[in-house]
Amino acid sequence: MTHVITQANRRRLVLDHQGQRHEFTALWLRERSPDDETRDPYTGQRLIEAAELPLDLAIETAKVADGQLNLHFSDGHHSTFGLATLFDEQASESPRRLWDAAGAPHPEADFATALEDDSALLAMLESLHRNGFVIVSGVPTDLDGMQPLIDRIGPLRRTNWGGIADVKSVANAYDLTMTQRGLEPHTDNPYRDPIPGYIWLHCLANAAEGGDSTLADGFMAARLLRERDPDAYACLTRVTPSFRYCDADTYLESEGSLIELDSRGEPVRVRYSNRTERVPALPAEELEAYYAARKAFYQLITGEELTLHLKLDPGQMLIIDNYRLLHGRSAFHLAGGVRHMRQGYVDRDTTASRRCVLHQRLATAQAQGEPA
């Protein structure tokens, strides 16, 4: 049973549905009216100019019947909404699972299956969204072996280093990634705008001594910092250092907080790159607070409480959410053999789009009794 209540001079609508309260404003409902006068039936894009609607727009009548909400607005417009659609608007996205080392997941996918089957590809993308990473097995050990799966999602994000690039020790390395030293937990390329959304790290050979990969959930680190040191958390959401990468042919610079919040005040992106960070000359007290807060965050992301250790085998690939996870590696020695990785980037918008489209497509097929 759904009960309808209008309030505040009929400019708000409250739906009490199965014990849950849902509140909507008249203007929000009016500009989202699903009728053909308000929205183009093919594109779904708005035909009216929402900014021209009267600010005192009210709901004259509101009735619920057969799962539909029928509204009559003070501008004379009538509209009918499906209740399920309205409630879906207020539903949050599929939840993320934050984890520490003790409770770390081990999400897996098979390359060939995800390449051929939409359900398997969706499962891989849902797992990536939920956990922040997924390990894909059975990837061809060709130089561009990951490319066919990227093409199912892509496009590949090209940078000044090209498309899919080597990650191995070289002489006269242009970046510390291309040496044998260990790498502290970090997020990639915070000096770019936009920052690459997902890292695809494909193992061709990993016989060197050491070179284990590490992962830490930056959103879990942010949560723990907020609980244990609220002042440090507030500082890292407030101060915006810059990040810079330069070589003979490239100059890249951007800025942003180490913990970036969304409109609801929840972490939506973490940045950490000791190699490229450049803190501005802030007032002394602010700098002291920032350095203490950064140290507290660093101790979390490098501590064993949050650090997951793994070593990729040839033919395995690690896909990492670069807005959420921090990754690193232990030092390695080539006396034991070769360590050769290939790395590419795929942007966040195309990955999210693919996941949403597959979800809608498969849900529609299931509802119609069609094979997925």
UniProtKB/TrEMBL annotation:
Gene Ontology terms for molecular function: 2-oxoglutarate-dependent dioxygenase activity; metal ion binding
InterPro entries: AlphaKG_dependent_hydroxylases, GBBH-like_N, GBBH-like_N_sf, TauD-like_sf, TauD/TfdA-like
One family name in Pfam for this protein: GBBH-like_N
Coiled-coil positions: none
Cofactor: Fe(2+)
Alphabetical keyword list: Dioxygenase, Iron, Metal-binding, Oxidoreductase
Domain TauD/TfdA-like: 103-345
Any one GO BP annotation for this protein: carnitine biosynthetic process
Occurrences of domain Gamma-butyrobetaine hydroxylase-like N-terminal (ranges): 11-82
Family (UniProt): Belongs to the gamma-BBH/TMLD family.
The protein's name in its UniProt record: Gamma-butyrobetaine dioxygenase
Organism expressing this protein natively: Vreelandella arcis
Lineage: Bacteria, Pseudomonadati, Pseudomonadota, Gammaproteobacteria, Oceanospirillales
